[in-house]
Amino acid sequence: MRTLITYDIETDVIVIGSGFAGLSAAIEAKNAGADVLVFEKMKAVGGNSIISDGGIAAPETNMQKARFITDSKELMYKDIMASGLDMNDKDLVRILVDQSKEAFDWSINYLEVPYLDRVDQFGGHSVARCYTAFNTTGASIIKKQVEKVTELGIPIKKQTYFKTFILDAAGKVIGGIFREGYDYKDAQKGKDIYVKSNKAIILATGGFSSDVAFRIKYDSRLTKQMETTNKPFATAEGMIESMRIGADTVDMNAIQLGPWACPDEKGYGIGPMFSEYIVFQYGMIIDPEIGERFVNELADRKVLSDELLSIGHPCIGIADAGAVEYSGWDIGKALKRGIVLPFDSIEKLAEHYNMPEEALHKTIKTYNEGVTQGTDQAYSKPIIEGAGVFAKPPFYAMRLWPKVHHTMGGLKITSDCEVLDTTGKVIEGLYAAGEVTGGVHGASRLGSLAISECLVFGRIAGRHAATKADGSNT
Ligand SMILES: Cc1cc2nc3c(=O)[nH]c(=O)nc-3n(C[C@H](O)[C@H](O)[C@H](O)COP(=O)(O)OP(=O)(O)OC[C@H]3O[C@@H](n4cnc5c(N)ncnc54)[C@H](O)[C@@H]3O)c2cc1C
Fold first, then answer.
1. Ligand 1 center–CA 384 separation, angstroms
2. b vs e for 314-344, b when ≥16 Cβ sit within 10 Å of the residue's Cβ?
3. What pLDDT does 40 receive?
4. What's this model's pTM, rounded to 2 decimal places?
5. Residue 473 reports pLDDT greater than 70
């Protein structure tokens, strides 16, 4: 006999998670006419999104056109598939490349997100197509999303932890049990509430980089000794509950390590600003034991991280003063905290890291010849605009060692963001978007594409969840 549930709250669309994906979904669902409620387990909104660099990618944008950068959806598609080792869900990638310009424009024109006046080329992208939110932080995007959510009258219930789904007799998701008054440090706090979703639940609970027990099931190298760039709350319970009701997953062992991370600071830190934005584009990575390069610094994250891990010890990212000046980035904070170190000669740099000095001089000479000739014979690194010879002191350096950064794998979804079960059928009433889903990035995500993904698929999930009319739950 089924017990009759008394619901504490009722709404059309429940959104779980208040990062880029969840807030995009909430805004679109509301604009499509639904009543929406956002649930967030933490005291603060924004998830990992708020601590991100705010880098978003899109092709054929006005900012590219103003700089005479030739790009196309097709080229972006090829770049994504190459980095993803062709494991990607081609339909989802097509949607991403087709809609990322629109989502980027939406963030500028509708949300009024301010962006820096620059376009960067990150590893694995064939051209410069990455835009950075003001202050180089995802907080600039989240702030505007929260303003819009408030303007639209969408409540965000913070400290309310999603526990489990409520299903009807046909297996359709019709609500959830949440812990109201949840305290991250004391999970027993608060009380359970029952919330009814008249249309759908959209799961936007993010990735699981901080969930050591869960991540080592899929990659046994990622023990607790392996640091992460994520917030500690990036855990898998939303995904696990979905799996409990039959949801399928894809690419779960594709867990990305950030090759630009520095072992001399906790979490994401400030080093990646130097390594990703300056060293990889205009400098070199050196194995300190032999004083030589070993990789195309503009290769994608998987290639770089795998190379670093196979070398087996931290390597040194170096860039000269000319590169730092050209990049336009301020590395003052990283210098002040001793994450990036300045050296007034190559000899001193070599001595500090115990590198064979002669080998380092030879490496720099070969690299400079390549830059002058416009081809890197050794590792085929693209010599991009602004790349100069490594010659102008001070010479800056930072240690590099990968940290767990992004989980490409996740729930299997349709093009409308409906969650699929292991038999390939849609789980009615359940949508997902953002890092909790899998398929878009395949084996490895390109830099700046998570934000594009969250905006594109968050919006799709919101619109469909609000408008899908099957009549079975009304
Ligand atoms: C340091 C850092 C820098 C990054 N920089 C970039 C960048 O510049 N460009 C880029 O494209 N990508 C970047 N990324 C990746 C990108 O930020 C993330 O993939 C993206 O923000 C994920 O957004 P999301 O909405 O899916 O999840 P999140 O932003 O993580 O939000 C998920 C939310 O769900 C909540 N939640 C989880 N479980 C529950 C539950 N049981 N009940 C209630 N709430 C729950 C969480 O508390 C969280 O607030 C970066 C990541 C990190 C860690």
1. 31
2. bbbbbbbebbbebbebebeebbeeebbbebe
3. 98
4. 0.93
5. no
